Amino acid sequence: MQNGEVQHVFLVGAKSLGAYGGYETFINKLTEYHQNNQKIKYHVACKANGDGCMDPEKTEGARICSEHDFLYHNAECFRIHIPEKLGAAQAIYYDVAALRECIKIIQNRKIPHPIVYIMACRIGPFMKHYYKEIHRLGGRVYLNPDGHEWKRAKWSKPVRMYWKKSEEMMVRNADLVICDSVTIEKYVHESYSSKKTHPLKTTYIAYGAETRKSTLTNDSKRLLDWYERKGLTPFNYYLVVGRFVSENNYETMIKEFMKSKSEKNFAIITNTNQGFLDELEEKLGYRADKRIKFVGTVYEEELLKKIRENAYGYFHGHEVGGTNPSLLEALGSTDLNLLLDVGFNREVAEDAALYWTKEDGNLSRLIERADQMSDKEREDLGEKARKRIKEAYSWEFICGKYEDVFAGE
Description:
Blueprint: E1 7-12, H1 22-33, E2 40-47, E3 63-64, E4 69-72, E5 75-80, H2 90-109, E6 115-119, H3 124-136, E7 140-144, H4 157-172, E8 176-179, H5 182-192, E9 202-204, H6 221-230, E10 237-241, H7 250-259, E11 265-269, H8 274-284, E12 292-294, H9 301-309, E13 313-316, H10 325-333, E14 337-340, H11 343-349, E15 354-356, H12 362-371, H13 375-392, H14 395-407
Parallel strand pairs: 1-2, 1-6, 2-5, 6-7, 7-8, 8-9, 10-11, 10-13, 11-12, 13-14, 14-15
Antiparallel strand pairs: 3-4, 4-5
Helix pairs in contact: 2-3, 3-4, 7-12, 10-13
């Protein structure tokens, strides 16, 4: 990139800007922090319909330009319509359609040396074609491979095989692989260094998080109403927030909490349905334990932040993926964090958290130990956690890293 020239960056793979989800939060923050950046112009693909889509008419700060385009944080956003009958294949269709639209915009506007940054490895079988097309237009392809999608328990064996092969093909057809975890970066090199026709180039940039306090106060009506509805009181509950999927080990956490002698509650913020809860009851009999509380979802950012701040402790059971956004949020908000002992989590929290394993009785014993901790011990861990986030994971720091990668000389 020459001096004074704007670097156009196309972002593909997130459903929207700012909704639940790691990539959505990332793009929201990246465009927010760079909205007045004179060096970079963002173009963002967004879903126009279906699960997780973005409606600019209901998005504060969005300026509608046409039926298909809107501006948000000075980023040019283009909407992609998805045939909903495709089911699980929607994600693949969406990424391919978004890439086609990127190429069309680059061609029509004769954009020099664009960067197309693709998040997740869903479209490997199509990637060689689009890699060549983007290179023909003078562009480069950057990739964020996410975590180990092919390890997720929800996928059948054939689907897992597809994700694994797709990951390899995506890495093979990328000019730069941006990993959000040192562990993931090491895995990419060990798995694919010898399988690329050109040298494998990687860099590490984590996700970000905030350490600021919620704008809500402890006597806020919204907070107090929520506590009353859910049967909770501040600093008398453990908390977990996220998707209820096997690799996040919710069942282990619930089972171990039920074994513990803790007199606190366990509040679970997640999407559920009655069939799912009935199935869980059959497995664990959790309804007999009044401490276990499924409290639904909370999408209001300030309320969720305050609920995190007022938790006695936070559980994190993710074992698949890189730097997990919900872990960063917890470390930035909650003093006491109890994390599954895997490389990804230790890499992020270091000595600012307590760790548990899936061994029978391990977490229940840790809960009982945590219950006996003094306020000072918990506050000291919280200070360490916030220092860790501030120094290595603040959005300002992370977005600065991306500016270096996208617009660096």
